[in-house]
Amino acid sequence: MPTYSHSRLSTFEQCPKKYWFGYIEKVEVEQGTSIEAFMGSLVHEALEKLYKDLQFLKSCTVQEIVDFYNGRWEKEYDPDAVYIVRTEYKEENYRRMGERFIRDYYARHQPFTQAKTIGLETQWMAPIDDAGEYQMHIRIDRLALDGETFEIHDYKTSNTLPTQDKADTDRQLALYAYGLKRKFPWAKRIRLIWHYLAFDKDIESERSDEQLELLKAEIMRVIRQVESTTEFEPRQSPLCNWCEFQRLCPLWKHKFATDALPPEEFRKEDGVKLVNEFARLKEQERDVAIKIEEATQRLVAFAKQQGIQNVFGSGRRAAIRTYPKLSFPKKEDPRRAEFFRTMKVVGLWDQLAVPDVYELAKMLNEGQVHDDVKRLLEPFIEKGTTTRIYINSY
Which of 150-154, 218-222, 293-297 has the highest mean pLDDT? Predict the structure, then answer.
């Protein structure tokens, strides 16, 4: 029976190649844990201890919880296994951040009697489809019950605070709410609560039954996309710096191979030489294009000033011709919808309008078209490849 999780599906959406490395090939790498993940894990453990002790009628002071956190840090922190991407900050900066998160949370929520804890770091499976063919992992930091209202609590240690709109469309906790409904069909109300510890702020949201049904359809769409994918292409983003498979990725492995070379060998490496030569030619091309544009403007201005249309040089002639140019509302123009309506009214729409095949190709390549629609379009699609080279800094 296929099993999925929010993190698994998010990995595919973030980068299909990372999904391929982690979930299909199951590549084992020696890279350690990021300092952010290490700190976040220990903060979670400390808050889990807080509520677990309360279940056994043991009330811990904030200092006891902080001491537990610092004790775990001292015991488990290994500079050879925990890496820091932002090298301007040290291990101590992150340790003190985690300690502050715990103290702020404790002060905000004591005496912790707002709701009864019924689950900590839950580990259960819930069917995502009606037939029960696909199962989803439901991993809740803290599940509580306030009267007849369930509360799904999630601790966040990131330095990014989302908007309310973002929380209202968040998939992870909504997925947990769907799983909770399958486990407890009598559940009427479920509150989703994020604790953004870096900001000492809680954000709440809820989902209707209709929204959860739409979520189920969306999850199944992503699952179908995963299972129909045959080419797991890499997708570059700022998250690449935290990817454990970066050394193996076709986007980055040449960088790691050349970084290990001495300076003289680096300059002689074939790929390095080819890129440097290509970049030099592209820079010359840009310089020439700028000079051509500047020369064009000067030539046009000269012809206009002299009242002539042909300008003669040494065996060459420049013909200056001006033609009318028309433009119409672009996508972002608020007049675009009215422009289209007018085209239909005057009978020009069917005569002139054509599909944006470039946008359609992009939608198909990115999996934005439903499989049923894709099958209908399949007879009209000619598949091939095109190659372009872009030069940019990294």
Answer: 150-154
